[in-house]
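step: validate -> pass
step: tokenize input -> pass
step: predict -> running
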Amino acid sequence: MTTAQIGYDKRFIMVTNVLYPLGAVVHTVMMLLFIAVEIPQVVYLNLGSALIFIIATALNRYNLSTMALILVISEMMLFAYVGCYYLGWESGFHMFALLSIPVVFLNTQLDMKIKVIMVATAGLIMSVMFLGYHDILYGTIQINPQIVHTVHFGSLAVVVTIMAFSAHYYATSVARFEVELSRSRDAAVLDANTDKLTQLYNRRAMLDVLRRNIEGEIPTDGHAVIMCDIDNFKSINDHYGHMVGDKVLGKAASIMKEQLRRQDAIGRWGGEEFIILLANTNRDEATTIVERLRSSIEQSVAIRPEENNPVTITFGVHHIVHATPLSDCLQSADEALYAGKRAGKNRVMTTW
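step: predict -> pass
step: emit ->
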């Protein structure tokens, strides 16, 4: 089953979860009205219909929506046929059979051939009722014609109201479900693009960001691509454990993300290494921003807060002013990073 089908099934169940109890209420009211006018045959007919809608509601709750649908369609056909038999064509009971058509086609679990067969059967039953009862205006029960006319207008009002309500509720359900689906998709995309430990972009997402910016049109000030790596991180893990190492990574990532601008992007490249894009940034601005990041981490991140053992980080900065292959940018930034490592760490190295 496709995602779209699952979505439509959910909407269908949302609608029928309201319509089936509503059907039980409608038949209960009709039952009381026919008790008042003393027509016991139609009282029992509505009692049976109300019970069927209650059963269909229960089946829906247990995810047996197709079984519930078949039961309800059968009820609509039988109710229309028997109602016309007792009260005649003029009663308008035949119109209840029309409710089966939208209900059938809103369900996506049924094969189209089955839908056509069900609707054709409904049409056949309507034709039989018309041929058999259209000349028998007032049915087999002798009652006041005025009551039959009243029932006709009541049947018409009920059918039109239920159809209008179904359309309205289905439309609102679709809108509500689309919002939920959109949020779910956004959450799934965010989850797929986010590094779980640092809550930054992961490597794949960051590569997409870099390609869009570096290999396309470059603004006048250019872009800066920065590779950075926490100094002596292996020693932190070896001496203090991976839990402490994870906290250091998370804290460093949080500080850098907070200090970057809206147009910038940062991701975890792998291990203790990060990659940053400073968009629409000239060389002087890039140097200033990266130096601020380096200083903030040195001042704010410690292996253990109670000890005087600050965490440091080394940056390699490469600046571009025209479209450049991503691999070349990454290699240049990486070379600058390791030049900084060889020069003593805890510094900003540029390629210019």
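step: describe -> DSSP finds eleven helices and five strands in the chain.
step: cleanup -> pass
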